[in-house]
Amino acid sequence: MSYWSDLREDVRSVFERDPAARNAFEVVLMYPGFHALVFHRLAHRLWLIGACTLARMISTLGRFMTGIEIHPGARIGRRFFIDHGMGVVIGETAEIGDDVTLYHGVTLGGTTWNKGKRHPTLEDGVVVGAGAKVLGPIVVGAGARVGSNSVVTRPVPPGATVVGIPARIIAKGPDPHEAAKQDIARRVGFDAYGAGSEQLPDPVLVAIRSLLDHMQATDERLKSICAALHRMSPDFAEVCVPKLKEEDFQVIHQDDPANKLD
Length: 262
Prior knowledge:
This protein has six helices and 15 strands. It has a six-stranded mixed β-sheet with strand order 3-6-9-12-14-15. Strands 1-4-7-10-13 form a five-stranded parallel β-sheet. By secondary structure, the protein is of the alpha/beta class. β14 and β15 (168-171) form a beta hairpin. Helix content is 36%, strand content 13%.
């Protein structure tokens, strides 16, 4: 894509990830993250054709104007969004995929002075929270989330959420049975699966999640057993597991006039 096409996509992506954005005119004039991209995309093109000194000059001007330091050698994909932006540092060999979001104070840095690949790679859809440090030539998988102020020095699997110093995984990738678990949780009035995965785990929520996981696994096992018995004997009457009814879990309030006996 052309330089101007990339910038138009960058402007449109702001509206998808920042509810405070009201119009394109405001984004172009008031968003330092967008300004930093304007400088970087030009500097990177100059870097690729060998005009390294001019590229560094433009990069330095961008840092002075925005407080965001992006080395002109860094490779940045489409629809990249830096929210607030102050204090963001992106190293020379960093690689960033499409639809990535960084918040203020993020560092994509190196852990060695050796030349070559020494900065992280962020795949498509990664979100890095404010103040987080992602260090070294590691890969943060597609759709992963890095919690605020975390220090990441090891690869992160796709779809995982990591927090802490050093960062540890608190939520793994998508579960193929997630929809069924959410349905069970909704019926019994438990909404932990609706909570954002960026939240830190609570012992009670973890315990209830384990029960829901066990319920889901038991249902799947019963279905497979019934299906096997039915194949062995067509006369076998397959018994369906009773479905959970929402009204069975509703709390009856004593003060409600509708619940009083005549």
